[in-house]
Amino acid sequence: DLMHCLGLIELRFLLEKADGETIPVLEATPEAMRLAAALVRGGAIPKEAAGDATHVAIATAHGVDYLLTWNCAHIANAAIRSSIESICRNAGYEPPILCTPEELMED
Hints:
two-stranded parallel ribbon
């Protein structure tokens, strides 16, 4: 949706300002889209949240190590994390660590 896109644009601007470099934009490859469909079909992420499945699948297919999100309903959710990881591994991918930024922070 528009607010999500604006948030990504703002994040990219902040990252560019922080270190002078841009982060790559990951493509929604056919492999990622198949994985997204598998996440929904397997029940790890509900059909109504197919965009969240796509988010996880793109990160997974591109070998991202960590997927930081505030989306605790369908991504950084301990109750469904094992289902997401299982579906990704069954498809031949190692899933990223799914967590909130707070969970990643060290004291």
